[in-house]
Design brief:
255 residues, alpha/beta, eight-stranded parallel β-barrel, 10 helices, 8 strands, globular, binds 2-phosphoglycolic acid
């Protein structure tokens, strides 16, 4: 069985350095030692350095970023480069999150960011997912297009270095309709693996992790894992130490 991974996406929270460090310390404290599951916390850029300094003595989790520039360096006002992120100890980068796509990021931008991330040996966490479901199953071609465009030009040997998070937009965040149920995830997982296999070959795709994200109900975690989820991308509940550690513990104990 492949190693599970739980990624907490803090989004644009919390509001101060102090709160971020407190939340991080409590989260790390709540993570059991000798975990088989990987835990990743993705805070806003500005907190990465102080959290990284704290983490150096603990090593119970890794740090991730919520975005990166596709440019290497230079005159790109407001951007953060992969080299800067690597320098503060970032190991993962969430790319193509639906909230960034809603701000105008497209598959071509995401593709360039994935390539930049891979070139530094850092793991991209590519978020994909349809805006809505329709009876004609057009949402499947929507997801297929996201995969094909975001992964255009990626060499076969790199596909296993990418994590995919299936996050249907209708299930993400406060205003969402509901969580996708484990069966819906399972079908989509098969579909994603098929699209990836057609492009990269079944053998290369075997190890690609597919996570679920979007209003995850803690009670449904065992069922998601039974349906072969390789872990979860968690938004709101990663800001709540009790809930986040529950997600970690249930995942760990279902292995
Ligand atoms: P949510 O967010 O868990 O708050 O629905 C998930 C995500 O945005 O990755």
């Amino acid at each position: 069985m492949s190693k599970k991974i739980i990624i907490g996406n803090w989004k644009m929270n919390p509001s101060s350095q102090r709160e971020a460090l407190d939340l991080f310390k409590l989260t790390i404290k709540a993570i059991p030692n000798k975990l088989k599951t990987d835990v990743v916390i993705c805070p806003p850029f500005i907190y990465l350095e102080s959290l990284s300094r704290f983490l150096k003595t603990k090593r119970k989790a890794s740090l991730g970023a919520q975005n990166v520039s596709w440019e290497e360096k230079g005159a790109f006002t407001g951007e953060i480069s992969m080299e800067m992120l690597k320098d503060v100890g970032v190991k993962y980068v969430i790319l193509g999150h639906s909230e960034r796509r809603a701000m105008g990021e497209n598959n071509i931008d995401i593709n360039k960011k994935i390539k930049m991330t891979l070139s530094f040996g850092i793991t991209p966490v590519l978020c994909i997912g349809e805006l809505k479901r329709d009876e004609n199953h057009e949402y499947l071609s929507f997801v297929k297009k996201q995969i094909e465009e975001c992964l255009a030009g990626i060499v076969k040997s790199s596909i296993s270095k990418i994590i995919i998070a299936y996050e249907p937009v209708w299930a993400v965040g406060k205003g969402s309709i509901r969580e996708a149920n484990p069966e819906e995830f399972h079908e989509m997982r098969i579909f994603i693996k098929k699209v990836l296999s057609d492009k990269f070959g079944a053998k290369m795709v075997e190890k690609v992790k597919i996570l679920y994200g979007g209003s995850l109900h803690i009670d449904d975690i065992p069922q998601f894992l039974k349906e072969d989820a390789d872990g979860f991308l968690v938004g709101r509940n990663s800001l709540d130490v009790k809930k986040f550690s529950e997600i970690i513990n249930i995942t760990e104990n279902s292995l």
